[in-house]
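[Q] Does anyone have a clean structure-token version of this?
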Amino acid sequence: MRKIKKGDNVVVIAGRDKGKRGDVSIVVDDTHVVVNGVNQVRKHTKPNPMKNQPGGIVTVELPIHVSNVAIWNPVTRKADRIGFRVLDDGRKVRFYKSNGEQING
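[A] Here you go.
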């Protein structure tokens, strides 16, 4: 089970976009995620008539390392760490380390 999943609201804690918040749109691999509105770069693309794609300068969101993001705790309104807990029925769930509240999803 991963600590950061698709759809989680995260805050960037290090790097160029420090302090920005967004939702995880793609989990690339075990160590990288793509966050909406974070780590955006402008990329020059050639036109591709086969894909009906015009050329020009496009803004693309690149992956960011999971060590540079932390999950957003809406109760404390701060970045938080994640722990794992096994419930009585055998399910493994994530919880916020600061207040012990279970994470939905």
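[Q] Thanks! Anything notable?
[A] The radius of gyration is 17 Å.
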